[in-house]
């Protein structure tokens, strides 16, 4: 939900209500939505009206009048690499994500509450509580090359992720899809290996957008998205021009968007302030203040549940001593981390991975405070008082260097000496992450709480960062996927968060806000999708240019 | 005007012996004495400036940590990029740490590492550069191929492979710097030495049956010392700047410590507000490297004046 | 004597080929030594072991290193640079997109920096010990003592953000007029010149002074040859070798070493391509870039050596 400064009378923007209206018209009744989506805050599903459901917040962002057509802007993302690709399966950085939603569309699309809305699929329903799903495709949708959208395109776009040689980033999510079949020339059926009421949400992720059947060369960016690809040069730039045949009527507003990557932060800020680019992401708190104070530029911060965590391997010394792990969690001076490292652009966390913006966030856990005396006692109990422990930090894990240095200072108060070991960002995830007894990791927002917990906390999860294994947790996680009763499911998530908070080897001091800077002439920035920067990377069709 | 020239003093002893032989070859060289310097006071001034600046940083490197008012990693202020104040003479850095303490503590990395690495690179590079011209042709070619290969390896790649193979340590950082900069020193000194080796007095020394090290040290080295020293001064500057990039790659200096270059780099965000946190370490690098170069310059000049 | 030159050039070229071969071998070995391979880098933080194994198979990373090297070498020898593993595009095309940018930047910087540096070095040597010499000394030292990223960022702040005269980013694609061209290249060239001029000027001065200290110049002085002529006609020819080498070394930096300038001005050149390729463990691309840099370096030093030989006839017989 957007907290904007004009008060609460504009809870539903004209644009949003139009969307809801279209969705309803498309055949998705509210009741159906409730039943199928199984998302909490049920009364508001599909409408986006209930305040407090999403804590995504926007500072200094307002709508700036009515949408206007035309205009060309240049957007700079924080990463730039010659490995950039328009193959949605390979998308790995913000700039890839942005381009995917610019050139392609998915069967579904997230709204501001992270509920999947109809996109290329006009309707979707499950007859057996999530085991089989039928998606009915929108009629008259064409790809940029003029070809009509058919069920074959959907089958190809989804099933190609299952081929390990494609190198898809979402193989683990697609694994549960046994097969996709065409029922007729408009309907496709998804058969899952186990029921999952969240399939429509999964299909809204950037990697699962629809490409034409049989595509192997993605350099032209042929999709059904709001913009067509005029130019793409990896690591240099891409130019997107308006798709006049876009299936969503009236969108997009802009004539063209040029996307570039500028990896150096001060270069990115300077480019925004000099007017060379009109929107940038990944601002640190220090630079956010600078942008905010400059005439003609604004800042938007979104809390999407992105976190950098201290990973303490519970299968290695010293993390195998529960008292040590608990002590470390008490050694985070969370207030100081938020104030000093993030300059306030974040939210205090409580060693639970689910962000307060999620409907499944459990707020019943007492906040862990900085408590060196308690930590010292615990360390003594663990037999490591006065020890010297190495902690691995890297530029690859956002803010880990700053957090490490702050932790080093606060740990010294409890008599624990931390040796920071800075390793290159290059190759960090394959060579260092989860491989040291103590190190930092970074987890980007996941579209649903279940995906997050399945990928990072289940005993068998490939990225179970701390090597934490808990049978009770695993059972709760599986049961939650097919639990139809919302209250019971919420309780399951609360129990799981309590387990993680108390026992796992993961310390999450703060959630990091995604901070963007943009030219004040850009309109439509009040929309917030708490999935990452650039409105969950989906900004392209929603913004306009006031000039 | 000040066009004063002098023969490098070391050659003098040998030149008496060589003089007759040389005259026989083409008579271009005469045992002549050098005119007195006309600009001695000026030289001294520059030397003193160089010595003062460089000496100051050596002292800081040695005793700086003792003088630091705060621990270098302590978060002592809420204000970031703070200006000069009684509590923080050089302001505060991007996380609110005392800049003066960080510089006093960090200077020793820059000064120590850069001096050692510059000396080693020049020693290795210039040493091989001089010796190889006296070696058999095939061996000379071989050494040149090795240095050319070394110079063609991207330094980032070199740093990464060293970190992954040997972990991170200060000696390794020095080794990486030497590997990056010795080949350049080799190139320059080799081309200097090649020119000199064709000169008569070297040929004569060879015919006399002098050893290779003798020829290199006595006949060749004194005649290229100015260039070699200037090159070393430049390399010193480059190494100071290289270190910050290397610690960024995880080689060497680890947080919360930081060398002067890293201090500039981590505070670069404060440049727009003219933060002391970025200006102070940049000035430190400037005074250190200028001081070192002035000192090196005056060293080679003072060699000329010694015999007066 | 005259037909010694072609022979010499031929000899140099063949030994350059040997160096290229050595470099390719070393780069290959280093890439294999680096932890993490292309497959892991492509799949990133959230890769599963099965995926890595499958992609490895797909990319042919399971073959023995010698076989892979042989494939690369035979391809390279026949002009096939291979495919970039990280984005599936031909290496030749990736290089083709960026090489002209790098060459242009290098050419402009060379055209500006070399004459200035040589003039500064010559003047300083002629006026050795005088006020001009000392001023140039301090100027060149100050130029080189400021970190490159600081010069670049400061230039952007002043000329782009505050004054608004120049664009903060250097987009080659937007060049439409001579004015655009100058605006776009002004800051990158300025930054690079700061680094290069100092080095070249100081080495020029030092090499000349080494010569001016020698007895034959003293002789010329005694014979009453005027100072300018002494430097230009007597000392300079003998200093050409070292000077040319110093210039060649500095210029070789212009292709591979300009990563900071490319990053800060977002200039699409070949240095950032190489750095990305190393990060991605993209062997074919790393090799191609390394061959290019090494080749450029070898050509530069060969030219430098030829200059030295032409200026010093005695070297021809070596």
List the helices and strands and how they pair.
The complex is a heterotrimer of chains A (547), B (308) and C (318).
Chain A: H1 14-25, H2 30-37, E1 72-77, H3 94-103, E2 108-110, E3 116-118, E4 121-126, E5 132-137, H4 151-159, H5 171-174, E6 177-182, E7 187-192, H6 199-202, E8 227-233, E9 237-242, E10 256-261, H7 265-273, E11 279-280, H8 285-292, E12 297-312, H9 322-331, H10 334-341, E13 346-348, H11 372-382, E14 388-393, H12 400-412, E15 417-422, H13 428-431, E16 438-443, H14 449-456, H15 471-482, H16 486-503, E17 506-507, E18 510-519, E19 522-523, H17 533-536, E20 544-545
Parallel strand pairs in A: 1-10, 1-11, 14-15
Antiparallel strand pairs in A: 2-3, 4-5, 5-7, 6-7, 8-9, 9-10, 11-18, 12-16, 12-17, 12-18, 13-18, 19-20
Chain B: H1 11-25, H2 40-67, H3 99-132, H4 137-152, H5 155-166, H6 170-197, H7 200-208, H8 212-248, H9 260-266, H10 276-305
Helix pairs in contact in B: 1-7, 2-3, 2-10, 3-6, 3-8, 4-6, 5-6, 6-8, 7-8, 8-9, 8-10, 9-10
Chain C: H1 4-33, H2 38-43, H3 49-59, H4 65-77, H5 91-126, H6 131-145, H7 148-162, H8 178-212, H9 215-222, H10 227-256, H11 259-264, H12 270-279, H13 283-311
InterPro entries (chain B): BP-dependent_transpt_permease, MetI-like, MetI-like_sf
Pfam families (chain B): BPD_transp_1
Protein name (chain B): Peptide/nickel transport system permease protein
- Quaternary organisation: heterotrimer
Taken in chain order, the helices and strands of chain B follow as HHHHHHHHHH
* Helical run tally of chain B: 10
CATH C-level label of chain C: Mainly Alpha
What does this structure look like?
The complex is a heterotrimer of chains A (547), B (308) and C (318). With 547 residues, chain A is α+β, with helices and mostly antiparallel strands. Chain A contains 17 helices and 20 strands. Chain A has helices spanning 14-25, 30-37, 94-103, 151-159, 171-174, 199-202, 265-273, 285-292, 322-331, 334-341, 372-382, 400-412, 428-431, 449-456, 471-482, 486-503, 533-536, and strands at 72-77, 108-110, 116-118, 121-126, 132-137, 177-182, 187-192, 227-233, 237-242, 256-261, 279-280, 297-312, 346-348, 388-393, 417-422, 438-443, 506-507, 510-519, 522-523, 544-545. In chain A, strands 1, 8, 9, 10, 11, 12, 13, 16, 17 and 18 form a ten-stranded mixed sheet that branches. Chain A has a four-stranded antiparallel sheet with strand order 4-5-7-6, covered by helices on one side. Chain A is globular, with a radius of gyration of 23 Å. Chain A starts with 13 loop residues before the first helix and ends with a strand. Chain B has 308 residues and is mostly helical. In chain B, 70% of the residues lie in helices and 0% in strands. In chain B, α1 (11-25) crosses α7 (200-208), α3 runs antiparallel to α8 and α8 runs antiparallel to α10 (276-305). The longest helix of chain B is centred in the last third of the chain and has 37 residues, at 212-248. Chain B is elongated, with a radius of gyration of 23 Å. The model of chain B is unreliable at 1-39 (pLDDT under 50). Chain C is mostly helical. Chain C has a single domain (4-35, 81-316), classed as MetI-like (MetI-like fold, Orthogonal Bundle). Helices cover 77% and strands 0% of the residues of chain C. Chain C contains 13 helices and no strands. In chain C, α5 (91-126) crosses α8, α7 runs antiparallel to α8 (178-212) and α10 (227-256) runs antiparallel to α13 (283-311). Chain C starts with a helix and ends in a 7-residue tail after the last helix. The mean pLDDT of chain C is 84. The A-B interface holds A 265-266, 270, 284, 286-287, 290, 336, 339-341, 343, 393-395, 401-402, 404-406, 408-409, 419-424, 426-427, 431 and B 73-75, 78, 80-81, 94-96, 160, 163-164, 168, 247-250, 254-256, 268-273.
